[in-house]
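Practice problem: predict the structure.
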Amino acid sequence: MFATEPPAAAPLSALDRRSLLKTGILGLGVAGAPLAAQTGGKGFSHGVASGEPAAERVLLWTRFVGAQDTALEFEVSETLEFSRVAAGGSVTARAENDWCCKAWAEGLEPGRWYYYRFTAPDGSHSDVGRTKTLPVGATDKFRMAVFSCSNLGFGWFNAYAHAAADGDFDCALHLGDYFYEYGPGTYPSNEETQSGRVLFPAHEIVSLADYRLRYATYRRDPDLRRLHQLFPMIAGWDDHESTNDSWEGGAQNHQSETEGEWSVRKAAAVKAYREWMPVSDEPWAAYEVGDLATLYRLETRLTARAEQFSYGQILSGKTSPEAAMAALVAFREGDYRDGSRELLGMKQQAWLADGLKRSASAGKPWQVLVQQVLMGNLVTAPRLTEGLPADLPAYIRQRILAGAMAGRAELPLNMDAWDGYPAARERIFKAALDANANLISLAGDTHNAWAFDLDHAGEKVGVEFGVQGVTSPGLESYASYLPVDVLERETVAHNRQLKWMDGSRRGYMAVELTPASASSEFRFVSSVRDKGAGVNDTRRVSTQAGSRALDMG
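Answer:
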């Protein structure tokens, strides 16, 4: 019975895997079916995906490469045989959109699993996808697989594979750095690059054609393809979907003299993202999870972000420790506190404040920020500067020493996070308190795992779960001269809001919301260098509804 009509809350393990393999749902599933065994016709080049889930609709995606623009039919059904069609329509795969096409499937029932497929004029079908609508009313549980920082060159996407095999999620969240813009040999270096992980194009991506080809390369990965096939995804870009440390008017890794106008590159990155990802064209959005939670997908990069502060610029020309410290203190008391600096911008900030108020007033236990960068305060522990080896690369040495000096001046480690925009963060925290919200921040970007208590002016605001990278290396790659346990212990001890961290392992989070509690199970894969390596350790961190604080027991 489960093969044809699974109950709304049924995990993948409860389904008839034999039927799913036959229809291409599992793809490279536990039975090891090759990718060629999937049902996608020859014009369907990159599988299927879904996103933007709501109670009565979901956005469907596929790519069909034809000799000319091609009209496709789509069907949504409660059964694998598509004997009862719940929604359908047509959409056109066009060359002007890189043959990617998206369609809203509407008129669906809330809180239900559905299957979907696209059909070409010659009768060939895409892979069969599985998706789910959001619930309405009483909701006992909602589970999300949360990812960030997936650099193909550093290794295999074992975190995606594990989440897909688990199957017990209502949706997937990707918090950004879905891919990286660098050319081969940059990040990772040639020595660090995993054999078999080949990037296209073979240079840093700048043009629209470059961005499209990089998406096409990543979406050929079978584990990423299968993740998209099995779950609706809520996704937002961070910086590497455009280029490193991007902001409204530029980026650290954009040189206009050789790479053209920033506005042109930014527009190309946004267009390719919206072509290749199962996302709407809205820069931010809210998702209502029954009476349990509201999720807010934020945009923190390209719309309104002010340029990041640079310790290199602040300390430039300072030839003594005394002069450097004086410059840092002057900066802390001056520009750092500039209330006009934005991360979200006034329009998005007003939208979020109104949304928090409406959600909390409706009695929903949780208000969840689906966003990119850490909100928790993080400074460099002085101990991390002890015993720096002589052969440490100069750029790493400078970063560690500058971070430690900044910490002594009560300034943060990472100016690219919310720490670099304290007034903007205070506005969000104040809005959460005014709304009487129970805030959960989900963040990526750092490649490491974190659990923070968040507070403002002595009042508890909520908690933050920061997800480790899928493959991108973390603090262990910079502070390799220190044992990881020392790095973690000293960092936690030196940061009041930080309650726990993992500084060396990759993986993903399994986040679960219930009326009484919210938790994150940090799942760590044993390796990203060995294809198929599974989860070999976990750490669960939770918070009780209304406490606005972590329970570390």
